[in-house]
Design goal:
The protein is an alpha+beta fold. The protein is built from 2 helices and 4 strands. The longest helix has 21 residues. It is elongated. It has one domain.
Amino acid sequence: MNFVMKKKLLQLTCLIKKEGNQYSSLCLELDVASCGKTREEAFAGLKAAIETYANYLVEEDREEELYRPVPQQAIREFLLGEVEERKLITVYAMPLEFSYAS
């Protein structure tokens, strides 16, 4: 028996910011996060977390639950955290296209 797996493409928005000695990353469409010592590590960790999350939901036949946007208050906390008033924050926004088999 041959199974043909469909590939699905997600277009995602990833935010990365420096927090102390590390970088935090967040996918806005999936509410998945990661961190790393560099921006590249934080982004790579986020891609790995997204892959794990997507594969888990597909395996559990819960693919319809894949999209779960980050709540507005959580975005504010990610962006601003414990920032002093009037301090400029640098946030990197990176597009990510992610394919997974369904």
